[in-house]
From TrEMBL:
Signal peptide: none annotated. This is beta-galactosidase. Pfam families: Glyco_hydro_2, Glyco_hydro_2_C, Glyco_hydro_2_N. Residues 27-162 form the Glycosyl hydrolases family 2 sugar binding domain. It comes from the Bacteria. Residues 203-306 form the Glycoside hydrolase family 2 immunoglobulin-like beta-sandwich domain. Its EC number is 3.2.1.23. The lineage of its organism: Bacteria, Pseudomonadati, Bacteroidota, Sphingobacteriia, Sphingobacteriales. GO terms for biological process: lactose catabolic process. Gene3D superfamilies: Galactose-binding domain-like (2.60.120.260), Glycosidases (3.20.20.80), Immunoglobulins (2.60.40.10). It catalyses: Hydrolysis of terminal non-reducing beta-D-galactose residues in beta-D-galactosides. GO terms for molecular function: beta-galactosidase activity. The keyword Magnesium does not apply. Keywords: Glycosidase, Hydrolase.
Amino acid sequence: MYRYIIVFVVLFQSYTVWADGLNRLDLAGEWKVRLDPEDVGIEHGWAGKSFETSIKLPGTTDDAGLGTVNTLTPALAKPQLSHLTRAHRYVGAAWYTRELSIPAGWAGKEMILTLERVLWESMVWIDGIAVVQKQRSLVSPHEFDLSSLLKAGKKHRLTIRIDNRKKLPISVDDMAHAYTDHTQIIWNGILGKIAIQAYDAVRLKSVYASSNLAKKEINLQINLRNRLAKAVVGKLKIKVKDKMGSLPPVERTIQLSQGDSAINLNYLLGDKLKLWSEFSPHLYDISLELKTADAVSTLSTSIGMRELSTDGTMLKVNGEPLFLRGTLECSIFPLTGHPPMDKAGWRKVFVTAREWGLNHLRFHSWCPPEAAFAVADELGFYLQIELPIWENNLGKDEGVMNFLYEEADRIMQTYGNHPSFCFWSMGNELSGDFNALNALVKYVKEKDKRHLYTATSFTFQQGHGVKEEPYDDYLITQWTAKGWVRGQGVFNSEAPTFNKNYSNSLEGISIPVVTHEIGQYAVYPNLAEIKKYKGVLKPLNFISVAEDLKQKGLLHKASAFTMSSGKLAAILYKEEMERALKTPGISGYQLLDLHDFPGQGTALVGLLDAFWDSKHILSAAEFRQFSAPVVPLLQFAKAVYTNDETFKASIDVSNYGQEILKNQGISWFLKDAGKIIAQGHFQSAIGKGHQGNVGHLEVPLQTVGQAKKLKIQLKLDGTSYENHWNIWVYPQKVAVDFGEVSYTRELEEAMHLLKEGKKVLLNPDWKKINGIEGKFVPVFWSPVHFPKQAGTMGLLCDPKHPVFADFPTDNHTDWQWWDLQIKSTTMITDQVKGGHAVVELIDNFANNRRLASLFEGTVGSGKLMIASFDLEADLANRPVARQLLSSILTYMNSTKFRPKVIENPAILSQVLRYKEAQEKSEPKAIY
């Protein structure tokens, strides 16, 4: 089925673009504030009084140091590990007041007070008299008409009551990011613009502009207001300019009837038309001027000319294939606890995201302020906005549904025309009454055709989420009825392979799919980050981990834990993203996350920290190799080979760049520590979208005589696009010479041999010994939020240790460790005194235990090596285990095998005590 949806786009700025300064009263500055936790303010007439405590607005009570002072001390427990900690917390009513003078020239004008962003409810009084317009919104400006109470040339007292308490059940455990302490905080105050705007009786009220690419014109619906008791005639002038200069103006004489009205006008761009996209975010500035006999009204806006559509299972922008390379933005701003309200604050976010190759941000269960859209417009980002809800009982509360409809209307009116506002989901992982949810989608889709829509960003509700809902333009999911579309359900249960995609899982899906929150691979806390928290939030979670490590004598390893776990996360993110790129029918991914998520159990899943700064796990340039508009891809069967095999691979290219690559040169190289051992070159025409099997390579591996880690590198000649992968090659014929080493699977026998002064390799049955389930993938999301999971974060070892002389490895987990990790149980070695963990497993930060899967030590006159991964079964078909066993034995038979003394060897009976055979956990078991 072919779908085509034209989305009309413009910046709508009636709330954010003001008339000349003479008609605008800026109220930013010093106010007085009084907290009202017991709600006595209205009863006792606070609205007409001044208070003693000063506060700067825009700002929050947290900024002012008001509220309950935090008294928590560091601990590996909740709430310390739940999220960052507010230094001062206030949730309740707070009153803000100041005096103001109304200019004498404002007589007869309409006077509108705007508070750009408030949580959750606001009420206003003038000189103690209430304005009967209580406002509720989490995502758009609160507005009050003060015309009847303000007198020109007079002084007045303006009092605003802000109540940030939860008004409606919009969120599971208060985790929706529009209202939460997990990312942005539940702040009290006023953010952004605080001003009174004076309007003449006849004025331009707002403009709805849309793009018509077929006719090369801007369509304008201009909304007017006439408060006079008669119709009037006015002259309307439209000016358009872009960075190249001004275009010819258009003038019309119009008649304004009484009250509110609208007219439709078109502005022809013709050959001046330039499109808006990630590659060319071209904007047109539009100025409207309305002159009547008594007044002049102006309004300005901008427009980006673009059309979004779907073609079967493909997203398109301006008729070209579109792939969303996205991450989430969950209002994570650790210094302030709230989003920036200026463009400068958002440039860090978008410039960094672009540097790392992305073109898309999903705003999880919230909508950002005007400044975010403005920066995204300028840089060419495709944004997904969500209503402020994450709820399991949607549709069962009439008040919630009414609120969502109202918030949807406000989002449309306030932000809906931005060219960057491309996609709209009703909320995060919604469940409940899907009839009510689909009715909401139908409503917004019929009312505003400028975006593409989906009912929910995934759902766990049975019978939903696995296929599209009736009004979906695209589907966001992590699995379908046919299987997973993200690595969480794949990478631990299937041996590493790099020639698979998710096509089988997409059977029966007829619209584009965007993969939901892929990644979520936990990285150990970067304790060097603690010093960066100089604002209203304190990193008690990080401090708790640091103090625990210090107490356990592990603090010196913290940076290595971060780097090693981060390298594993990066490896998994790469394969996750590349599988999506290799799958026809997938039109994008949404990472969770490129940067850290400090809430929901301290979910440090990013390669960047919560400040959008790199952790230096890998560079932006390295990440762009698999996240750029054009990505060279390689399809090959496995990570590990023996030298009697031939490495075979086919080459794909994911081309969502600006142009078709005609007769493109592609070079490939097979390298051993930088030395080229094989290479090739060919030409190919590379069209748009995923282009499969554009080339092929074969390399016999017989010349690789020793165990090696090799790198395969692809380059698109004459471009910056390249990519690389590691493979491991081992000799087919490996000497497994026990020599002086005694091998046993029983601790009792090992202890007997050690008493005789033997060298002993103890390899107990991993399925039976006590410990932690061996897994290849690290902690999912957070060990605090999801405690029902095996809790390690990858291995840490010294590649220069002589045990690895014939087993090349980095100091972190990579694909060649998969078989060993899966067929293992991690030993808990906290109580062992002495010895040395040769292969250490990084414990999750909620426990910080000493863990190992390869441990050496001297016991009496004997020398011991304990391996808790399988070095016995089916070695003929397990080249990695065979190679590691050979390397271990070579080391143990050498004079270099001089391990530290184990001071309490009797404790090994507890470390290795048997239990019932271990069952592997299912990926969904964590939920």
